[in-house]
Amino acid sequence: MENPIWQNPHFFPLLLTCTFFLFPLQPSLSAGLQDDYIRQPPGKVVVAPHLRSKSDPQQVHASLAGKEYMRISWVTDEKDVASKVEYGKVSGKYEAMALFWLGS
After folding, report:
1. CA distances (Å), 41 to each of 30, 34, 64, 91, 103, in order?
2. What is the DSSP letter of 102?
3. How confident is the model over 32-85, as pLDDT tens digits?
4. Inter-residue contact 100 to 78 (CB < 8 Å)
5. β-strands 96-100, 83-87: how paired?
6. Domain count along the chain
7. Residue 38 lies in a domain
8. Residue 43 counted as domain residue
9. Residue 69 sits in which domain range?
């Protein structure tokens, strides 16, 4: 029958080494895995009048949808009229268009 592990002459020196040297390093090791980005607190709410037609978007959201694609979504007041968002890669040069018609 084998002796229990704590009766091994190397057990306690190894335990002390782990306790005093490896365990204190663990938080610093995991800290390197955290993101460097820190989200800023939300800013003031800006209320701006919407002076265009109800089919014009009030908010437009552009987000990445995969490696080579974008997802465009928007919010309008009007529900019975087609709405469109024109967009492009260069400011002021809108070569693409997203169109939505909910219909009734």
Report:
1. 25, 19, 23, 28, 39
2. -
3. 555 677 778 888 888 888 888 877 788 888 888 888 888 878 888 777 777 777
4. no
5. antiparallel
6. 2
7. no
8. no
9. 59-100
What is the C-alpha separation between 99 and 104, in angstroms, rounded? Answer: 16
Q: What is the DSSP string of 26-90?
A: HHHHHHTTS-S--PPPP-PPPP----S-TTS-SEEEEEE-SSS-EEEEEE-S-SSS-EEEEE-SB
Q: 57 and 44 in contact (C-beta within 8 Å)?
A: no
Structure tokens at 45: 């709410």
pTM: predicted TM-score of the whole model, two decimal places: 0.41
Domain presence at residue 45 = no
Residue 25 in any domain: the answer is yes
Token pair of 97, please?
């268009």
Which two tokens mark 70? 């974008």
Q: Which of 84, 85, 79, 83 is nearest to 103 (CA)?
A: 79
